[in-house]
Structures are given as structure tokens and as C-alpha cells.
Write a structure and sequence with these properties.
The chain has 433 residues and is α+β, with helices and mostly antiparallel strands. The chain has a domain of 300 residues: Outer membrane efflux proteins (OEP) (Up-down Bundle). The chain contains eleven helices and four strands; from the N terminus they run αααββααααββαααα. It has a four-stranded antiparallel sheet, with no helix packed on it. Strand 1 and strand 2 form a beta hairpin. The longest helix is centred in the N-terminal third of the chain and has 68 residues. The relative contact order is 0.16.
């Protein structure tokens, strides 16, 4: 089996595998994203990448840290104080006291609310890291498999031109063509070999990009021939609000507002109540001592007004940041949808076209050239055009998957497509130990 036959067989096997892997597209109503789920092998590969990726592990650790801090913020703010006093003088005193500062203004509730909002922000950040890693892997996997198809096409081009050079050499010896035409064929072969080296370099780059996020080439499942279709309507507000970056901005706004409450509560003094009991000895007299003390701090030298002003300004900035994030997310979703639809339509059109593939066109061109109906220059021009077109169309397939990844990122459809609702999160772990 020669290289050309192997390339055709590889394309046939790929189309068969990806054709059976993709199920019927199920479109969500109300302008929602497509809810078709990815093949199970692809879902398993993404989960394996998450387990190996250091950025995901770091994000999970930050969630555990935030949850622990939230638990700490929910605990009582002040601990009781035990006081022992002994005085030996004209009057001897022995006393024991217990003092407790009272959270009179609700500082603990305010700080717990701020910590809970901060935890939600960190969880949204974790989800964004997961999404980014998964989509980088998806882009890398598609780029790697497409690069292998392009390398196979490039090898087919080299083989075709090598066969043509051999035929041209025979016809030159027979006196059918001049030396110039043989040299033209040889130059075309050398150019094809140089272009094949570039395709191999692109494949190495795609492999490196895949491995940089924890992907393993040997574990790559076959990618579907084309990603599913999407709804052409605008992204609904509910889907927009569920995006990780919007959720994070919303949680940061809530955190900033909660910190305003914390700053306001910090301006209110909390009294300390102390109970003391003991005995007083004065010569033959021995009396029991009972005392109640109330201490209230006076915010005279520092009334903490500046902290409140700063917290309100931070809350206003967080509110503006949320509006900006929503606006950008909406525009990005619209751009990603339009780009993906255009790329997918172009790829589907090429895939379903009836145009002859490069190998078939080369065989026909060679017959016309041997019959003298085509000059060497015309043969090379038409052969190069057919091969370049097929290579370009194959490259569009990688761009389609990149567009699909961009659409998943912009629409928040990654979890639904990969069916990742049951992925264990740091929020489900016990952080009380």
C-alpha cells in the first residue's frame, strides 16, 4: 500500500469514527446554546487533563483556602478573658474575673457575609480556570489531529510530485520533453519538500500546545468531524449571568458591598463586660468581693471614617466592573456565535462538496499530461492549486474547532456539552478538619 492509498484510508477511517461519535443535535429553546453532549471518550480526556493540570490544582487549593477563611469569619469575633488578681498590702485582695467583649453591632455577621461572597468569587475563578484549561485542550487536540491530516496531505503531495519527476525524467530521455520542463518538475518537488517540513513543524507546535495543558497525544480520542450546530439567536440573560467571569464580577461586587457594611460596623464600639469575685482581708475582717465592670472604647482619635469611604469607593468600582464585564461578555458571545457559524458552514460545505480529492485530480492531470493535452507548467499549476485548496480546507477544520471553543467560552456551554455537572469541586470537600 503506497502513501497515497494510506492517506485515503486514514481519511476514510477518521470520517467513519467521528461520524459515529456525534449524536443528533438537541437545540435548547429560548435562544439557549446547543445541549448536545460530547462523546464519552472526550469527556474522560478532559477530566484527566484537569487532574494533571497545575493551574486547576492551584485554583482548587484557593477555593479550599477561601472556604476555610469563610468558616473562620463565621465564628465568634471575641474570646472571653480570664483575670486573676492578688494584692498583698494593708488590705489583702484575692479575686478572679471573667470578661467578654460583646459583638453588639453585628460585626461577625457582616464579616461572614463578606467572606461568603469572596468564596463565591474564588469558586467562579476556579470554574473559569477549568473552562480555560478544557478549551485550550480542545483547541490543542483539534489542532494536533488536523495537523496530522495536513501532514498526510503534504506527504501525498511529495509522493505525487516525486512520481511526476520520475516520469518527466523518462520522457526527457525519450526526447518527449525538454530539459526545462524536467527542471520545473524538480523545482516543484523541492518546494513541496520544504512545505512538508513546515507542516511537520506546525504539528510539533500543536503537540507542544497540547502537552502544555496536560494533554497526552497517545490518549487523544477521535474528534468529531465537525462540532454541533448552535442556536442563531442571542444569548439569554440567564446564560450570560452564569458565565464564570460574570459570576466572579457579581461576587466581587457583593464582596465589596459587604465590606462597606463591615467598615460601618467597625465604627461602632463593642462593650466589654467583666464579672469579678473574690475576698478582701483586712486584719480580722474577711469580706466577699463581687464586681461588675463595663468598658466601652471611645473612637475619638480614630473614628475609622476613612475606611468606610474607601470601602464605598471600592463597591462603586466593583459595580462598574460588573457592568463592563456583562457588556464585554455579551459582545463576545455575539462575535463568537457569528464567527463559529461562518466557519462551520464553510467546513461543512467543503466536506460535502463533490469536488475530486487531490489524489483523483492528480491521476486525471497525469493522464492529460502524458497525452500531451497539458504542458508541464499547466500540470504543476493545477496540481498545486488542488493540493493547496485541500490543505486550506483541512486547516479550516481546526479553525472550526477553535471557533467552537470560543463559543463555548462565550456562552458558558462547556459544562452542558461535556456533561460535567457531577465533577467534584473543592466546595464539596470537608475543610473543617
Amino acid at each position: 500500500m503506497n502513501t497515497i492509498q494510506r492517506a485515503h484510508r486514514a481519511r476514510a477511517v477518521l470520517c467513519l469514527a467521528v461520524g459515529t461519535a456525534l449524536s443528533t443535535v438537541a437545540m435548547a429553546t429560548g435562544g439557549d446554546v446547543a445541549r448536545e453532549q460530547a462523546p464519552p471518550a472526550l469527556v474522560a480526556a478532559v477530566r484527566a487533563v484537569w487532574e494533571r493540570n497545575a493551574a486547576v490544582q492551584a485554583a482548587e487549593a484557593k477555593v479550599i483556602e477561601a472556604q476555610s477563611l469563610a468558616q473562620a469569619a463565621a465564628k465568634p469575633l471575641y474570646n472571653p478573658e480570664l483575670e486573676l488578681a492578688v494584692q498583698n498590702a494593708d488590705v489583702d485582695t484575692r479575686s478572679i474575673g471573667l470578661a467578654q467583649q460583646v459583638d453588639w453591632s453585628g460585626k461577625r455577621r457582616a464579616r461572614a457575609a463578606a467572606a461568603d461572597a469572596g468564596t463565591r468569587a474564588v469558586e467562579a475563578e476556579r470554574d473559569g480556570v477549568r473552562q480555560s484549561v478544557a478549551l485550550d485542550w480542545l483547541r490543542g487536540a483539534a489542532a494536533w489531529q488536523v495537523s496530522q491530516a495536513r501532514v498526510a496531505l503534504g506527504a501525498e503531495r511529495v509522493d505525487l510530485l516525486a512520481q511526476f519527476v520520475a516520469l518527466a525524467q523518462k520522457r526527457l530521455r525519450a526526447g518527449d520533453i525538454p530539459v526545462l520542463e524536467r527542471d520545473l518538475a524538480e523545482l516543484a518537488l523541492q518546494e513541496a519538500r520544504a512545505q512538508q517540513a513546515e507542516l511537520l513543524a506546525e504539528g510539533a507546535k500543536a503537540r507542544q500546545a497540547l502537552q502544555s495543558v496536560g494533554g497526552v497525544v497517545a490518549e487523544l480520542p477521535p474528534m468529531p468531524d465537525a462540532p454541533p450546530a448552535v442556536d442563531t439567536r442571542a444569548l439569554p440573560d440567564a446564560a450570560l449571568a452564569a458565565l464564570p467571569e460574570v459570576r466572579r464580577a457579581e461576587a466581587e461586587r457583593e464582596t465589596a458591598e459587604a465590606r462597606v457594611t463591615v467598615a460601618e460596623r467597625d465604627r461602632r464600639p463593642d462593650p466589654t463586660i467583666a464579672l469579678t469575685t473574690g475576698r478582701v482581708t483586712d486584719g480580722p475582717f474577711n469580706d466577699r468581693l463581687v464586681g461588675v465592670t463595663v468598658r466601652v472604647p471611645l473612637f475619638v482619635r480614630n473614628d475609622h471614617r476613612a475606611e468606610t469611604v474607601a470601602a464605598r469607593a471600592n463597591a462603586e468600582a466593583a459595580e462598574a466592573g460588573l457592568r463592563d464585564t456583562r457588556t464585554r461578555a455579551s459582545a463576545q458571545a455575539e462575535q463568537a456565535r457569528e464567527s463559529y457559524l461562518a466557519l462551520r458552514e464553510a467546513w461543512i460545505g467543503w466536506r460535502d462538496s463533490r469536488a475530486a480529492r487531490a489524489g483523483d485530480r492528480a491521476a486525471l492531470l497525469q493522464k492529460l499530461w502524458e497525452a500531451g493535452e497539458l504542458s508541464t507548467a499547466d500540470y504543476l499549476v493545477q496540481l498545486r492549486q488542488g493540493l493547496d485548496t485541500e490543505l486550506a480546507a483541512t486547516g479550516v477544520r481546526a479553525r472550526v474547532w477553535q471557533g467552537w471553543a470560543d463559543w463555548l467560552a462565550a456562552s458558558g456551554g462547556l459544562a452542558a456539552w461535556l456533561d460535567l455537572a457531577d465533577v467534584p469541586a473543592a466546595s464539596n470537600q470537608d475543610v473543617s478538619r
